[in-house]
Amino acid sequence: MTATQACPTVGEIVAANPNSARFFEKLGIDFCCGGKVPLDAACAEKKIDPNTLLKQIEAGGFKNSGEDAKDWLHAPISELCAHIEQTHHAYLKTELPRLAGMAEKVARVHGEHNPKLIKLHAIFDAFRAELEQHMFKEEMILFPLCRALEQAQVMPPCHCGSVRNPISVMEQEHSHAGDAMEKFRELTDNYTAPDWACGTYRVLLKGLEDLEKDMHLHVHKENNILFPRAVKRESELQ
To answer: pTM for the full model?
Structure first.
């Protein structure tokens, strides 16, 4: 990256090379809700040289392979919507109830010993409720509008006024989810089980950590790929 080149955002880098997400996760650089941050700004916060980081990504074997290596920047928008529903939404619809049950049990059994678990349970319940409504709104309103924009030759009717309006709401809700996941990490000491933790407690921590990783990819595909593509398509039709 030279002085004359525009600095790519973190989200743009991950969109072009999906497997580089693992590299950013390792460094603690947010590529989903924080995906619009230019790489140089993200690196400055971590005191990392952006050019060195780009070279490390290129040399580190983070080549595109597997399901999450698909080029969603150029695949049909309708295919991307279906992928999000069938992969990430389906995962959440299974995991949220499962983790909620474990969070309730762990809080009930161990909350007196560790009050943080009671708070974790409360935050997770709110997180689950908002995410379930969030997915419903995407599947019933936003994703159908994205599909309609892709297929239309002229601007289709839109009771939202513009696709930007529901996108703005979804991005705010993504930020809320991100804040909740930060709390999960804080309350569990980065998903570290104490020596006295029972099996359910340990499974809950692993489940929360896996949930966070999936949410990072999920939100990235929406914030940094689907939403900008839908906005661009709407602009082309106007």
So the answer is: 0.84
